[in-house]
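Below sits the subject:

***
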Amino acid sequence: MIVHLADDQPKAVELLVLGAGWTSTFLLPILQREGIKHAATTTTGRDGTIAFKFDPESSDPRPFAGLPNATTILITFPLKGKGQSERLVKLYLDTRKDDSACSASNTKSRPRFIQLGVSSVWSGEGWQDSSSPHDTENARAIAEDELMAIPEIDAAVLNLSGLYGGQRQPRGWVDRVIKSKEDLRAKGALHVIHGEDVSRAVVALHRKFTKSRRWLMCDMHVYDWWDLVQDWAVADVAEGRAAELSVEQVKTQQVRLQWVGELMVEEGVRALPRDSSVLGRVLDGRAFWNEMGIWPSQGRIR
């Protein structure tokens, strides 16, 4: 069954965002400022978006009929395992009024897809970069590799480090991931990327597309969890912020300071931050920024 584009939706945009979630709070303002004609979807169609939800088990083309033709389609939600990428692309292409008109221009153009992924597909120890072998058995990597192999389209993947920005701050992750001294002992490197830089990367890739490339995305810093935990604890306890915290929170930070000191003695660490050679997996994110001719804009996390 062929279902064509609904008449009441935009006929063509430059960038179509499938899944206007957290990243879109940074991306959509940039697209507006840059004058990039765009559309975005949410499951409910809120705030002027298009109502759309991808069901990886369904072959029904009707949810895709309301989507406009686009030069570049950004997939922000995870696709996993075999078959999901092929299904999404097939249903999108099958619902175009003109299979050759999947762009904002009148010229024939192959639709381009960008998948947002995660940097954990690189699981090796030591330095990893965009050219390093990735875990081909990872469910998300399987779907991403499938997407880039579909012959009817061009596709690329941005594999993102830990996302932060706005109310989402790494400092707030400590309570969740470090509940004991042994949790802290096991922590090595932390890698992050700000939502603003993710959005700048999407726009750069839209404008200078790199077919079949998997890019490792981070802010080009390697952070040491021990160093961060100590720094944040000192800021809370010794630099005046303690008045804003509960007694229990102050005690927790004092304990964390003690843990860091004890671990440095036990592990023979003379100074923080630790050398990258002892931090386990460390990420080199230079390649994408160098290729695009732009660099991360947000500096170090605080």
